[in-house]
Specification:
2 domains; alpha/beta; Aldehyde Dehydrogenase, Chain A, domain 1; Aldehyde Dehydrogenase, Chain A, domain 2; about 40% helix; 5-stranded parallel β-sheet
Amino acid sequence: MDAEAYVKELVARARKAQEVAEGFTQEQVDAMAKAMAKTIFDHAEELSRLCVDETRMGVYEDKVNKCKGKARVIWSDVKGKKTVGIIKEMPELGLIEVAKPMGVVGAVTPTTNPVVTPMCNAMFCIKGRNAIIVCPHPRAKKCTALACKYMQEEIVKLGAPADLFLCVEEPTMEISQQIMRQCDVCISTGGGGMVKAAYSSGKPAFGVGAGNVQCIIDDDVDLNEAVPKIIAGRMFDNGIICSGEQTAITPAAKYDEMVKTFKANGAYYVEKPEEIDALRNTIFPDGRMNKDCVGQSAVKVAEMAGIKVPADTKVLLIKTEKCGHDEPFANEKMCPAIAAYSYDSWEQAVAIANANLNVNGKGHSVCIHSNNDEHIKYAAEILPVSRFLINQICATNNGGSFFNSLSATTTLGCGSWGNNSISENLSWKHLINVSRIAKVRPGSYMPTDEEIWA
């Protein structure tokens, strides 16, 4: 297959369809975005089963919950937002904002999130009257293609051309690269290499950075409340969520209580040196994440390391002495494993998190369990991440939820730290162009030099 010619034909079809979408009303695009979310919600079980069977990663029940949960929250978040025509008038400033489409959006989607990421990207695209071409990860092409088919059918029912929503049936690296070069805008949600390719495409691009969420526990929290949240986040979808908690950085005075609480909630505490070494060598052979461990259960990962754990083990809590580049467990672990640290002062806790973020995960997120605003603000001033999630399950709330004010999304920008163009959650507002009408501002005048330099 000639990748360049194939993508050129796809883009031409999408561009023609997008010209039709230019004439859509706000009511039309909102109906289409809603229909996309609802069809993923309605087919959550089927798509999740196919996803687990195809990728051999993650947890069926969690994927069902993710499909339903993201469909709910993203539609609720975009509902009622103006993206067509005049979207804002500010008479006191003499400004009027007018929304315009960006064109054809190329979206490269990951094997770890192959259903809701295309849904999220497509909803944002349609909301802005753009066309979208989805290029799935080759290991998830069937479930992504089926999800896209269901969404395409829904917008066609509402009067959209079918080519407004296209999906590559047989994705390759070459096709992904051509999509990023030939489309008007790129969204790359995948590995670092793919994100770098998106930013090297010569087109406006939105990418994501690696996750390595450092979780800090303050000395004023109830461990019986905090620990179950941390476990829930770490075990969700067998740990493949980029927002999953990676560490439990705990006050030294409460460390033993923390371990006891983890164990009472289904964790296996790895403290024997030989078991720690075995697990380290299994998850990070040669210092790199073992792809065979990605998205596997805690029991399976322990078994791979030759460690016998109870059959109902939810997560592996690993006693960790070193942080930063001296310890592989400081890295993102894409399986239900948590590095357990102790600290003597809040400053030391933040320093541990900082050292680990400088290994990877810079720009992404930190999870803090604390009721001390001064401690939270101190961490926020020091740590180089885009999001600080407080007293919540990071894995399932970091991409926006009904209980916080982060934009609902599946694409989390990591700023310049993560080589990304945005340091916030990607949303519909990033996929519209805005024209500004500037009138003379009421009451404006030119100040004197004395006033300017006063």
